[in-house]
Specification:
The complex is a heterodimer of chains A (232) and B (144).
Chain A lengths: L4 H27 L14 H4 L5 E3 L6 E7 L4 H19 L4 E7 L8 H13 L3 H10 L1 H4 L6 H10 L4 H10 L3 H14 L6 E4 L2 E3 L5 H11 L11
Parallel strand pairs in A: 2-3
Antiparallel strand pairs in A: 1-3, 2-4, 4-5
Helix pairs in contact in A: 3-10, 4-5, 4-7
Chain B lengths: L2 H24 L13 H5 L5 E2 L2 E2 H19 L9 H28 L4 H28 L1
Antiparallel strand pairs in B: 1-2
Helix pairs in contact in B: 1-3, 1-5, 3-4, 4-5
The chains are: A alpha+beta (232), B mainly alpha (144).
């Protein structure tokens, strides 16, 4: 078992290399962005939903409310958001005819969907829900395939001007998991079966709708005295 | 100088990094454990991940650290022919093996989940024990 000094030097060299490799691996693990996992099927507490029924856009005095159930990772929702929603916003929401209510309906098939919904909820804490909402849909093709999308969400948080530390604390806390689950449960009770689904004047439209169709449905549902919205 | 003690030092170094990794997860410095199909987080977040109020991973850090230091000390020329370090390494690795057996039993029959990092640690501890036993036997006749 006797070793020549050269053998000991070789041993110390191997030990040193192993130590450096181990330290590097640990430093990498500590510094890499933490993946946030939002629990599913959580028990919804009364506090989770108290005073909260979705994210609102538009005037409180609008004559009609449209509720959209959507999933941030759903490509059809992304298409609706980028192609159809700008016209809806311009013709119906900004004119004061419609108040838009956005509700989360994260589908099980989309692994990053709940985390994205949670990122939007955390942005809402800082009054930036809609900018974050737009950023999430705009960049959906970038983050959707990622195994860990947290770093991308943090980047969007910076872009929309959030306090990143506060945002990160909120994400790590997963404090809105119950609220997201409540929104999903409520959608199920109402008959929502996919995304995007819309509820307009008490009726469920279980498919995506072009802006023209939404406008037509809204105009039919509005009281007769309402002036027509500007056409595109 | 002994190849067995070198092997023990290298194994304890590996075990030390595994234990530090698990401890960093436990104190929130690492978001998720690289676990593949295993149930590392179930095990690490279970009540059994503490022993007498101390994190098991921290006990691992201390245990591997002490055995690594002892193995490196035992490799110094002045301890080369002495059986004291061999006996101490054997004693410590025996305790580590018993403790690992207890933890593995908890995983199998109480937590009902297996953490592959714990399995790695168990293999390391068993190997350290094997080398320590070999080292002790190798030196025992010289003391007779």
């Amino acid at each position: 078992m006797a070793q020549a000094p050269a053998g000991m030097n070789r041993f110390y060299f191997v030990l040193g290399v192993a130590a450096l490799a181990g330290i590097a691996a640990l430093v990498y693990q500590v510094q890499k962005p933490k993946a946030v996992s939002i629990p599913v099927n959580v028990t919804v507490l009364a506090a989770d939903t108290a005073g909260f029924r979705g994210y609102l856009l538009g005037s409180d005095s609008a004559k009609l409310e449209v509720t959209e159930y959507a999933d941030y990772q759903c490509p059809v929702c992304q298409d609706f958001e980028s192609v159809q929603f700008p016209a809806v916003r311009q013709q119906l929401i900004e004119t004061g005819l419609v108040r838009w209510r956005y509700r989360d309906f994260p589908l099980e098939m989309h692994p990053n969907s709940r985390v994205a919904a949670h990122a939007a909820a955390c942005a809402n804490d800082q009054g930036k829900f809609w900018p974050m909402h737009e950023a999430l849909y705009l960049h959906q093709p970038e983050w959707a395939p990622k195994k860990n999308a947290s770093a991308a969400f943090t980047d969007y948080a910076k872009t929309v001007g959030l306090d990143v530390n506060q945002f990160t604390d909120c994400m790590t806390s997963t404090k809105y998991a119950g609220r997201i689950q409540a929104s999903f449960d409520e959608g199920l009770k109402l008959g929502v079966s996919g995304t995007p689904n819309f509820i307009i004047a008490g009726r469920l439209y279980p498919n995506t709708l072009p802006s023209d169709s939404i406008r037509a449905i809204v105009m039919r549902a509005l009281p007769p005295s309402t002036p027509p919205s500007p056409t595109p | 100088m002994s190849r067995a003690r070198m092997a023990i030092a290298l194994l304890c170094m590996a075990g030390l990094f595994v234990a530090i990794y698990l401890y960093l997860f436990k104190i929130g410095k690492i978001g998720t454990l690289a676990c593949g199909t295993g149930a590392c987080e179930t095990v690490q977040l279970s009540p059994q991940s503490r022993f007498l109020g101390v994190e098991v991973s921290l006990i691992g850090v201390m245990g591997y650290g002490v055995m690594l230091a002892l193995a490196l000390l035992a490799l110094q020329p002045r301890y080369a022919g002495r059986s004291g370090p061999a006996n101490l390494l054997f004693l410590l690795s025996s305790g580590a093996l018993l403790f690992t057996g207890y933890l593995t039993t908890l995983e199998l029959f109480v937590i009902h989940a297996i953490c592959r990092w714990c399995v790695s640690s168990a293999v390391i501890v068993a190997s350290v024990f094997g080398f320590a036993l070999y080292d002790r036997r190798k030196r025992a006749p010289a003391q007779a």
